[in-house]
């Protein structure tokens, strides 16, 4: 048994690191327990696929111009560059290429005219205004008689961006989340020049001695008197005591019951854990000898054929850009591919790419690759949270709510103002939960 702390934070992803920063600046005696042997959670950068060019295996971009992540970069001496995401998006159907932003190359007679505007204006407006019974995005698109070209764009922006399939995303929760969001999603994206892992390292630096790795928290006993946490360390149990605990573990871990609470969490909290969906996402970074065979797509940044994988290029329009493609695979297909061997997962991904752009067959062998299987990671078990049919923002509020002034909750899934699913959202929840814990420690 270790000495009693004021606060123990469980998890050292962005929410946990934001907690640590805030607790340290308030001179609170705290410790962070992290299950993995590395910190950063769902943010992880690789430099092995294309040396000299950091590539992301988890969080890929910064979404938004004004979000807190930029303030962290400035403070910590790191940099971001704007990605021409939508200007360079390509949608391919039946071998014909359509550009998202320029309307010059329609693959569908109506693409770029009615279908394009229906996808970016009409459907989002109809979703926001919809007041009927809840249904999935897939059903909504069916009922609304959405044009085929529009359907693909809406699916990409509103289901795949949520790491979910269109038949899982609930239209009412999605509309609430859309209205609450700070910025219009999808249009201002940035790449971290040094990579997300550099940001994690710099933020953790000053409190590195307070972050204990390889501590898998398995049990939390709580009462008015405080909290006792049981962690597994290399197979052996370790006990920790604190006045307060802040849980930042992914929703996937809570859903799986990875931590036993004694007494059990209140009913409203358990209902929220059940109601909110937890999507699935995989990233496969692949380097080829050259991307020239896909020249027809132009200087593309994102390629979609409407299926489970979207192909991204982090270094589009960058000098000396390496011939690297990242497959971002979501939903049921991500869970299926996460169980495959490396060779099988690569094969399935390349087959999907070739089905969209047949000339991808001429790319030749993959020279180097890294595969991030988030659904198979025992400390994540998926991708990130989304509001499925019958889930609402109020469930996120219930997930975030403190329990008896002793247990506090952070992490992307607890963001109830439209910024869940993101790094900046996770940071904001970390600050919120740390503030709540600090306030609860102050003498009455
Ligand atoms: C493939 C992918 C792509 C993404 N792309 C983007 C993007 O482009 N932009 C963006 O903003 N966001 C993106 N996200 C989402 C973003 O990564 C997350 O929202 C954010 O990193 C979550 O931070 P967090 O602190 O809430 O959780 P996490 O980062 O998951 O941190 C939770 C920590 O808890 C630890 N933990 C789990 N169980 C236990 C336990 N029992 N005991 C102790 N510790 C435990 C985990 O190991 C982990 O380190 C992406 C996510 C994925 C998976």
List the bound ligands.
flavin-adenine dinucleotide
CATH superfamily of the domain at 5-42 and 197-278 and 389-441: FAD/NAD(P)-binding domain
CATH architecture assignment name of the domain at 5-42 and 197-278 and 389-441: 3-Layer(bba) Sandwich
Which structural class best describes the helix and strand composition? alpha/beta
Low-confidence stretches: 102-111
Fraction of residues in H or I helices: 25-40%
Number of helices: 13
CATH class of the domain at 5-42 and 197-278 and 389-441: Alpha Beta
What does the average pLDDT come to?
92
Radius of gyration: 22 Å
State the total count of DSSP E strands.
Answer: 22
Structural commentary:
With 444 residues, the chain is α/β, with parallel strands linked by helices. Among the domains are: 5-42 and 197-278 and 389-441, FAD/NAD(P)-binding domain, CATH 3.50.50.60; 110-180, no CATH class. It has 13 helices and 22 strands. The protein has helices at residues 14-25, 68-75, 114-129, 137-143, 148-158, 171-180, 196-204, 251-255, 267-275, 331-338, 342-356, 393-400, 423-441, and strands at residues 5-10, 30-33, 45-46, 55-56, 62-63, 80-83, 89-93, 96-99, 189-192, 211-212, 216-223, 226-233, 236-247, 260-262, 277-278, 281-287, 302-304, 309-312, 324-330, 368-373, 385-386, 407-409. The strands form five sheets. Strands 1, 2, 10, 11, 12, 13, 14 and 22 form an eight-stranded mixed sheet that branches. The chain has a seven-stranded mixed sheet with strand order 8-7-17-18-19-16-20, with helices on both faces. A hairpin with a 2-residue loop joins strand 11 and strand 12 (226-233). Helix 3 (114-129) crosses helix 5 (148-158), helix 3 crosses helix 6 (171-180) and helix 9 (267-275) packs across helix 12. The longest helix is centred in the C-terminal third of the chain and has 19 residues, at 423-441. The radius of gyration is 22 Å and the shape is globular. It starts with a strand and ends with a helix. Bound molecules: flavin-adenine dinucleotide (FAD). Flavin-adenine dinucleotide binds at residues 10-16, 33-36, 41-43, 58-61, 63, 215-217, 248-250, 253, 258-259, 281, 283, 374, 379-380, 383-384, 411-412, 421-423, 426.
């Amino acid at each position: 048994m270790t000495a009693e702390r004021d606060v123990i934070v469980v998890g050292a992803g962005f929410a946990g690191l934001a907690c640590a920063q805030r607790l340290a600046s308030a001179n609170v005696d705290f410790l962070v327990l992290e299950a993995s042997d590395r910190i950063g959670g769902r943010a992880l950068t690789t430099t092995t696929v294309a040396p000299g060019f950091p590539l992301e295996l988890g969080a890929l971009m910064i979404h938004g111009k004004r979000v807190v992540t930029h303030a962290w970069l400035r403070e910590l001496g790191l940099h971001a560059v704007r990605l021409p995401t939508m200007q360079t998006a390509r949608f391919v159907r039946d071998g014909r290429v359509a550009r998202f932003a320029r309307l010059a190359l329609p693959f569908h007679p109506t693409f770029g005219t009615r279908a394009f505007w229906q996808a970016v204006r009409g459907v989002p407006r109809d979703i926001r205004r919809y007041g009927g019974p809840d249904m999935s995005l897939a059903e909504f698109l069916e009922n609304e008689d959405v044009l085929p070209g529009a359907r693909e764009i809406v699916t990409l922006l509103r289901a795949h961006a949520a790491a979910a399939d269109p038949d899982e995303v609930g239209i009412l929760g999605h509309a609430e989340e859309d209205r609450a969001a700070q910025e219009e999603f999808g249009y201002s994206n940035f790449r971290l020049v040094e990579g997300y892992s550099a940001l994690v390292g710099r933020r953790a630096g000053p409190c590195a001695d307070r972050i204990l790795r390889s501590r898998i928290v398995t049990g939390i006993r709580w009462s008015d008197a405080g909290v006792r946490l049981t962690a597994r360390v290399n197979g052996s149990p370790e006990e920790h005591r604190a006045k307060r605990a802040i849980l930042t573990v992914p929703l996937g871990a809570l859903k799986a019951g990875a931590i036993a609470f004694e007494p059990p969490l209140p009913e409203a909290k358990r209902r929220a854990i059940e109601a909110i969906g937890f999507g699935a996402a995989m990233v496969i970074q692949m380097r080829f000898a050259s991307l020239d065979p896909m020249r027809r797509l132009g200087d593309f940044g994102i390629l979609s054929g409407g299926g489970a994988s979207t192909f991204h290029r982090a270094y589009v329009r960058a000098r000396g850009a390496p011939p690297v493609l990242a497959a971002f695979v979501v939903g049921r297909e991500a869970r299926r591919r996460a169980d495959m061997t490396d060779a099988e997962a690569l094969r399935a991904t390349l087959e999907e790419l070739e089905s969209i752009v047949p000339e991808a067959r001429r790319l030749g062998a993959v020279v180097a690759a890294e595969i991030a299987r988030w659904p198979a990671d025992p400390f994540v078990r998926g991708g990130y949270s989304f509001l499925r049919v019958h889930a609402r923002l109020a469930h996120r509020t219930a997930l975030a709510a403190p329990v008896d002034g002793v247990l506090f909750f952070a992490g992307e899934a607890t963001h109830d103002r439209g910024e869940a699913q993101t790094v900046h959202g996770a940071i904001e929840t970390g600050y919120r939960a740390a503030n709540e814990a600090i306030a609860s420690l102050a003498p009455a």
